[in-house]
Amino acid sequence: MSKFEYFRPNSLEETFELMMENPGYCLLAGGTDVMVKLKENIIHPSVIVDLGALDILKGIKAEGSKITIGALTTHTQLSESDVIKKYAPALAKAAGLVGSPQIRNNGTVGGNMGNASPAADTVPALIAYDAIITIANMTGSREILLKDLFKGPGRTQLEPGELITKISFVAQKDNQSSSFEKLGKRKALAISVVNAAVFIEVHPITKIVTKARFALGSVAATSIRVPAGEEHLAGNVISDKLLLEVADVVSNAINPIDDVRSTAAYRKEIAGTLIKRALENAWRAISI
Description:
Blueprint: E1 5-7, H1 12-21, E2 25-28, H2 34-39, E3 47-50, E4 60-63, E5 66-70, H3 75-80, H4 82-87, H5 89-96, H6 101-106, H7 109-114, H8 122-128, E6 132-137, E7 140-145, E8 150-152, E9 155-156, E10 163-170, E11 176-183, E12 194-202, E13 209-217, E14 224-225, H9 227-233, H10 240-253, H11 264-285
Parallel strand pairs: 1-3, 2-3
Antiparallel strand pairs: 4-5, 5-10, 6-7, 6-10, 8-9, 11-12, 12-13, 13-14
């Protein structure tokens, strides 16, 4: 492990000053990824800026129809939150499947995004909710869709001096539903071979799907939406035949790679299967 200076600022202003004064900084949120990379000499920062004291970046708020999550909120807090379980159940499930209890207790939702792993579990769930992230620096803030944050594995749109402060999305309504599915090589501490999240809106009288969003992880360089599958589902009433068709459309729409965890062919097949399974669960859970 290389030598570095360590700072634990008490305010965002102090944080931004440290980031501006130390171009070789590395942000520490929960530390579940950063500490591994330090020990394995994957990264060599000159300065570690520990965000742990920034309470302003923690917590879950429900204001009207809007859910806001601080970037330093842990996966355990997400999975156990009554607000998230009621209004964003796919996110609650995804957060509860991250790593081990120790990792969930320390790892943060903002860190999961900033790490930019194609296999991140909370990211597809949040993309399915059309989540918006707020990015801040010394001079102000900007908002972008979460799906637009990622440039590739380990790479984001964040500029030097910027950090993610919060995530927001619209709370799920009675005629809407969502679900998350994950396939790993083992039951715990598994990096996703494929993960999938769906969000649907159904007309309360006709039962026609009026809105659909699908998100997949571990099938591309970043978590992705699958418009072809969404469009095939929307405008129709859910049936076993339709879900089989959607699964095929999803499988044919993606171009994953072979790696140590899976083959591309298996990923194509299982992605469609997971989307189908998530849609079945979402349909059963809808409150109309």
